[in-house]
Design brief:
Length: about 475
């Protein structure tokens, strides 16, 4: 929350808070039915004593604007217009509840809110630390030479031709042959999934995925009326024998996979397994969404080529992005697939946003063509490997008796399995109170209660040690 009461003002703190909240109600920002945060949360947000919040809320109650009920909390019940008008204003709360897009699960909402707190230790965040982003280079890089063409208008439906040509050349290093016409520039990998869900599938379609899965942490398919079907993983990832059987049994439409440095488990699928899955899916006429946003973030050795590299039948829709490797703020990714599919998705994208930012596309193309992107990747790999090794060292020191884990060969994540039967939900809440933000396994599989997704990509080395040491103490405390 950006606004806070000023202790230097002559107006009492409770009055400042009451006036601020009243303004939000009278301006229609907090409509009738809006639930007010708890007294404890408000006291923390406004950095005041709880008694100050109580006094502020009493004023609003006396004005007839809010009402508190045991069990349901405090809600807005009136505003100036509703008190004066003969007809009530729109019931925006009912509109909010009626929206077709599923809300984030409660724990994701808490994570998103906590990530705005600069003082919290973020041990689960799946993005590069600001220290690893090329901010100074980017400042210099934004200077446009006279010989360069910068467009501030709309790009082609499939995205900048120059960028798609550059992506096409870069994909050849991974063994993927894709003409610019078979590439669609999108606003990040998440939009790629959204376009696929609304552009290619019918409501009620079944999407198969490995479990646990990143798809369970976002509602892009569920909100479009799709059903998710998890495939249990064995030691070598997805069970081959179950793919065809489940496809036929549930009439599945797609298989979603992250072969390289899986989110959340961090595992790497070997070349043999990739080929086997591709062959099974080709036999079953089951299209594959191959999400390769972590593929360039290898730390020990380069991963096998993507499944798309061996796809001679147009069976695979391949997704790439610079959000994990260069900048999440540029919001640039791409889909590679059959031209007919790309044209359909491009048409849908034009209806949604008229194309991704032309400035962002210009920047990404310039980085890739100049060679600076590859240099940046090399630096990021070195730094991520150092952070991974340090996190493993800390885990060996404090977690050897309470958890097990595998060392990832790339990406951001360590999938930590706790020995005990403690509630990871309770651990999440306790850690959050201590200023430590975690991603429990339940975010990726509602039945998962033993794992935590730890990320070494965002927190500093000091924060990693401090956060993990305190986390081990909290776990041992719950075991007593």
């Amino acid at each position: 929350m950006e606004w806070k009461p000023q202790k230097s003002m002559s107006i009492p703190l409770y009055q400042q808070i009451s006036n601020y909240m009243k303004k939000k109600i009278l301006n229609g920002e907090w409509t009738i039915g809006t639930k007010i945060p708890s007294q404890r949360i408000l006291a923390k947000q406004y950095e005041v004593n709880r008694s100050t919040i109580v006094t502020a809320l009493e004023e609003l109650t006396a004005d007839g604007l809010i009402e508190s009920n045991a069990g349901s909390g405090t809600r807005v019940i009136n505003n100036t217009w509703s008190l004066l008008a003969s007809t009530p204003p729109p019931d925006w709360i009912s509109y909010v509840r009626a929206g077709i897009h599923e809300p984030n699960i409660n724990i994701i909402q808490k994570i998103n809110e906590a990530e705005t707190n600069p003082t919290i230790i973020r041990l689960g965040t799946g993005e590069l630390s600001p220290d690893l982003l090329p901010i100074e280079q980017m400042k210099k890089f934004l200077k446009v030479n006279e010989c360069e063409t910068l467009s501030l208008g709309y790009e082609q439906p499939k995205g900048s031709l120059e960028l798609r040509e550059t992506i096409s050349q870069n994909l050849k290093r991974k063994g993927i042959e894709a003409a610019p016409a078979s590439i669609l520039v999108v606003s990040g990998a998440l939009q790629a999934l959204q376009l696929i869900s609304i552009g290619l599938l019918e409501r009620g379609s079944v999407i198969m995925h490995e479990t646990p899965s990143y798809l369970n942490s976002v509602h892009v398919f569920q909100s479009a009326g799709m059903k998710l079907l998890g495939i249990p993983q064995d030691n070598e990832r997805s069970k081959l024998d179950s793919i065809g059987r489940l496809k036929r049994q549930h009439h599945a439409s797609l298989l979603y996979m992250i072969p390289s440095f899986h989110n959340p488990t961090g595992t790497l699928m070997d070349e043999k397994r990739r080929q086997q899955i591709l062959e099974v899916c080709q036999k079953e006429s089951l299209p594959i969404i191959e999400d390769d946003v972590y593929g360039e973030l290898w730390l020990d050795d380069a991963p096998p080529n993507p499944m798309k590299a061996n796809d001679m039948q147009g069976n695979v829709l391949y997704i790439g992005s610079v959000s994990k490797s260069l900048s999440p703020g540029l919001r640039i990714g791409w889909i590679v697939g059959p031209e007919s599919v790309i044209e359909r998705l491009a048409d849908i994208k034009m209806q949604i946003d008229y194309g991704s930012s032309s400035v962002s596309q210009f920047i990404v193309n310039k980085w890739m063509k100049s060679g600076l992107y590859e240099d940046h990747l090399n630096r990021v790999r070195v730094e991520l490997k150092s952070r991974r090794d340090y996190m493993v060292e800390i885990l060996n020191t404090y977690f050897s008796d309470i958890a097990v884990w595998s060392i990832p060969k790339g990406g951001f994540y360590i999938w930590l399995q706790l020995h005990s039967g403690i509630s990871t939900q309770k651990l999440f809440e306790l850690a959050l109170q201590e200023g430590i933000l975690l991603n429990p396994g339940s975010v990726y599989d509602k039945n998962e209660q033993q794992h935590l997704r730890l990320s070494y990509s965002y927190a500093s080395l000091v924060e990693i040690e401090k956060g993990l040491k305190r986390l081990s103490e909290l776990i041992n405390g719950l075991l007593k």
